[in-house]
Fold this sequence. Notes:
6 strands, six-stranded antiparallel sheet, alpha+beta, single chain, 9 helices
Amino acid sequence: MVAKKPEDALLDVVRSQLGYTESGSGWTKFGAWWGKRHGKTEDWALAPWCDMFISWAADQVGVSAVVGDSAWTVGHAQWFKARDRWGRVPRKGAIVFFDWAGSKSIPAIDHVGIVEAVRSNGTVVTIEGNTSNQVKRRERSMSVIAGFGYPAYSSKPVPKPEVSWTEEIVKTLPLLRRGSRGYDVKTLFYLLHARGMGLNGNIDDTVFGEPLDEALRRFQTEAGLKVDGECGPKTWPALLRVD
């Protein structure tokens, strides 16, 4: 009996979850698994879960080392890029990252899934978590795809970057304070939300207003940082760190 390729085994796992729906409160088993795995609070069970779904599936198959173990789509994409496994060509089993605005910029990434098939018409069939609050199969245009991460499914080891990918990301992130706008504010919003700082979906996540300022100050207090309401070279690494 020929053993399945790792990418086929991973696709079998994500297919087995088709139709899974988060609870009314937004709770998912994927977020609960992530929080327990990383020693986080139960708030992670209510966090946006598209990337945690991919991480959960990779863990089920034993391929986390090459697929990644992430809860943040931007950081996950940077993880692939740092390993020279990032590109724009769709492949079965690749991790696909979306930017709904079509900018193709990693900091603007909104969502993630896995490629199930590539159509001759140029579209990509994907399986995604947290799409309409479910695990669903989608057919996507390349126009909304920022890029692909290519896991090293073979036994060949994944090359490690000479520097931390967190350090590399921080170099690209600006100083944010009240009044800032744009994709980087959205990244800050996501990170604070995922860490249980009291933000919800009714807030404009691209504008740094009072709710975001309060959440950031709360995080800075808990992290033992200077509480100034500014997200800069000291606060970004603390937000990005996985303990």
